[in-house]
Amino acid sequence: MSRCFDELPDLIEASLVEHPRVVLVYFDAFGWRFLERHADHPLFSDARVERWASCFPSTTTVHATTIHSGLPLGEHGLYEWHVLEPRLNRLVTPLWFSFAGDDRPETLRDSGLTPRDLFPEQTLYRRLLPVPSHVALPAAFAGSLTSNALLREATVHPFAETRAGLASLCAALAAEERAYGTIYFDGADALMHVVGTEAPEVAAVMETTLSAIAEAPWPEGTLVLLTADHGMEGISPERTTYVNVAWPELGQHLVAGADGKPLAPAGSCRDLFLHVLPDRLDEVVARLGDLLADVAEVHKVEDLLAEGLFGSDVTDALTSRLANLVVLPGAGEAAYWLEPGRFEQHFLGQHGGRSPNEMEIPLVSWVAGG
Q1: Same domain for 144 and 245?
Q2: 92 domain-assigned
Q3: Per-residue pLDDT tens for 326-353?
Q4: 149 neighbors 115 (Cβ within 8 angstroms)
Q5: pLDDT value, residue 1
Q6: Are 230 and 59 contacting, i.e. CB atoms less than 8 angstroms apart?
Q7: Do 191 and 44 belong together in one domain?
Q8: Of 1, 49, 298, 342, which is most buried with the most CB atoms under 10 A?
């Protein structure tokens, strides 16, 4: 793995010098091992296939923000599904524009925060001008507040079905002399959360999606790039370790948010981030390390920053939101925070951690009609 997802905006921009049209097919959770599983699909027979790396944390929030803004994680700062928003001193779910744990999107509407406060002002689509950009997204969220914030300067094409989305994007590209386009597929990711990675219906969804991509009417000469934001680790609700059950007093060692509750859980059950009181950090790292010895590694986040795990250019956009402790479960394991009815672990598949199943992604490329 010599290259990382956050290099894609530069690659796209450079490729538009050589090709009149460039498309990024963003196939959520189609990690490297799934490409290997489907390696005999005709789509890959004449394509160039490379193994790339996901950004850490291996989560859609990081990668969707990067691919729409053109910025790496260290500059946009939205590092996981749940993160601290310092202006509210509360955990929020950026892609839903909601408070963390809410069961519906856009509950931040009355908070005083706007999507433009949360998401970067810069977009890749502005950077590519005067080349026009077209973005095809599932209709369920194509018109959301988050999409409106991230997709400024792009023409959005909502779709309800995979082949219809591809046809709409291809028609839009064919009508332009030069253009950039991207399409997002979330079906495999959503399904694996519920049924796990090995269920036969997962393979069926991936096969159907790959066939639709292969058979799409891409304008001749279009450079098509197919990638994923991350892979997926198989987990189990029954095997999940709840850190505040293993250590009932843990909440007393965490920073309190504006609602008076501990700032937990940031991240996910594959990368659980905790905002620990600074003078308790050493104690909590040691105690959780002992309690979770058979389940997970426990790290100070400052050590991972020093390793460069969050990238080389880290700004206040990230550090102001970032927790100071992270729990990284081993393969097949999950560690989370329990608040019944609000924070519970029901998934059979999840991502966010550093395992190869989560971090290894493909970059597949070909020129249509070539």
Answers
A1: no
A2: no
A3: 999 999 999 999 999 999 999 999 999 9
A4: yes
A5: 46
A6: yes
A7: yes
A8: 298
Domain of residue 147 covers: 5-78+119-232+355-367
For the domain that residue 19 is a member of, what is the CATH number? 3.40.720.10
Q: Which residues of the chain have pLDDT under 70?
A: 1, 370
Q: What residue spans of the chain are helical by DSSP H?
A: 8-18, 32-37, 60-69, 73-76, 115-118, 124-128, 139-142, 145-150, 162-174, 187-195, 200-214, 243-246, 281-291, 301-306, 316-319, 356-359
What 8-state DSSP symbol labels residue 218?
Answer: P
218 plus 273 within the same structural domain: no
Which residue bears the tokens 């400024």? 152
Residue 114 lies in a domain: no
The predicted model scores a pTM of 0.97
Query: Tokens representing 87?
Result: 């202006």
3-state secondary structure of 178: coil
Asked, for residue 102, whether it belongs to a domain, the answer is no
Counting Cα atoms < 13 Å in the Cβ hemisphere of 317 gives: 20
Asked whether residue 129 falls in the same domain as residue 266, the answer is: no
Rounded distance, CA 178 to CA 87, Å?
Answer: 41
Residues 127 and 263 in one domain: no
What is the model's pLDDT at position 312? 85
Query: Number of structural domains, the chain?
Result: 2
Within a domain: residue 255? Answer: yes
Q: Which residues of 220-238 are buried (b: 16+ CB within 10 A; e: fewer)?
A: eebbbbbbbbbbbbbbeee
Is 217 in the same domain as 282? no
Q: pLDDT tens, 185-201?
A: 999 999 999 999 999 99
Lookup result for tokens 């790039």: 225
Confidence at residue 370, expressed as pLDDT on a 0 to 100 scale: 67
Residues paired with 241 in a beta bridge:
335
Of the candidates 245, 206, 328, 254, the one whose C-alpha atom is nearest the C-alpha of residue 91 is: 254
- Same domain, residue pair 341 and 361: no
